[in-house]
Sequence to fold (158 residues):
Amino acid sequence: MLTVWNPMLSFREVLLTVHAGRLVAAAQPIRQGRAVPLVLEQMCRLRAHPSSVDVMEGHLAVERAAARLGRLGLVNTCLIRSLALSALLADQDDVQLHLGFRPSSSPKAVLAGHAWVTLDHRAIPNDSATLAEGQPCEEVAVLTARRPKTSRGNQVRS
Fold:
């Protein structure tokens, strides 16, 4: 089981969790129907921490932030966490946000889906394209998180 909060966190871990919290909060417009690519682009612009974030360190920071903010009433879903993680790791090569949905034959069925992040085609950390019920999803979209570039091709510093 993932430990959500540890009082012995280093200053870097606390700072990374705060930044992850900003990204989790920035992902909330998804609830009002904002387009996923637009929200992800805005989140990548908000990214204000050092590059080369360790993948597991970033994952744990997003989990801690989402759990804390979830207690304050913000939505904590796989989509919100995956958006935040993909924006947090936007400096890494080959970071992708995957969206999948479970097909249904009934027109009145509730839409069920899952979101996950991959780095070099491996899910982070042990997530996969399955729903909580263990049923597979059909992948319908793959988005790549990238930091905005300046006119000279350098990454914008947030």
The longest strand covers residues 95-101. The chain is about 35% helix and 15% strand. The mean pLDDT is 76. Residues 21 and 69 are 7 Å apart (CA to CA).
